[in-house]
Structures are given as structure tokens and as C-alpha cells.
Amino acid sequence: MEVHIRQEKPEDHEDVFSLIEAAFLHESNSDHQEQFLVDRIRKSYAFIPELSLVAEVDNKLVGYVLLSEITIQNDKNKFPALALAPVAVLPEFQSKGIGSKLLKQAHQKARELDYKLVIVLGHEEYYPRFEYEPAINFDIQAPFEVPKKNFMLKELVPDAAKHIFGIVVYPEEFHI
Fold first, then answer.
1. Considering 10, 52, 116, 176, which has the largest number of Cβ atoms within 10 A of its Cβ?
2. Which of 87, 85, 90, 91 is nearest to 68 (CA)?
């Protein structure tokens, strides 16, 4: 199975909406609103088109990943970072490495765009495979109550979080 990863195009939006909806349909840790979140982010300042990627198999969209801009701030400084939300793969294509390919490509593209950190609220058993660690290890906190093991950070470059601490600030589109 050949998987092609590319930047999402506007004409993909409807298929991506359906793909995300199907991917999270039976997910117990989901509010089943991820597809609406993506629509809102696309219209916000946080959207970075180069970090909105789709996976295709035989010209069919089977996966999607979005990294969008957030900040980490404390009482003295603001630091740019990215939020991973969501990564989605159609159920019949899950466990075939497509999510991994999407994540690796998104991380690489983010490095090329000079981003240093990615934050995710996700499965504590899945994301550590991609070098995500609990954000609390870096003194970076979520702006809401969440299990510490599920709120994670990935340094895209070594020691990127060494001198960064504070609370993650998400764009308002995340809170609707």
C-alpha cells in the first residue's frame, strides 16, 4: 500500500470533515467535535496551511493531521509553539502506519518552518513513540484540568523547551 502525504487543499475540506468524523466516531475519549474544531482553526490566525496535511491511498483521502499555532506564556514571556489536533485515520486504514507517517511529515514540516515545540492532549501510550513526554516534565502546564500523563510535549529540536515554562494558551477557536 503506497501512502502519499501532501498539503491539504480547499477542495479537500468536505472529505476531511467526513474523514475526521468517521475516525473519532467510536473513540471514547472524544467529544466527537474534532471536525468542527478543524473548520474553526482554518478560519483563524492559528492556521498554517503547510501544517494541514492529508494522506492518500489510491487517490482516496484516508488520513489527516493538523498542527496550529499556540503560545506558552508566563508572567514575563510568550513563546510560540504548535498544537497537534487532530490526527485522524479512517477506521479501515488504522494500524497500518498512516498516522505515523502523517505525524513524522508534520513534525518535519514544522521544523522547516522553524517551530521548536508541539503540544498534544492525547493517548499516553501512543504519542511517546514519537518522543512526546509529559509537558509537566518541562514545567509547561495545560490551561485546564487534564491528566498530566495525557498532556504532552515534543521538542522538534534538542533542548527547545529548556528555558521555556508557563501555561499553554490556545486560540479561542479551541474553546467554542
1. 52
2. 85
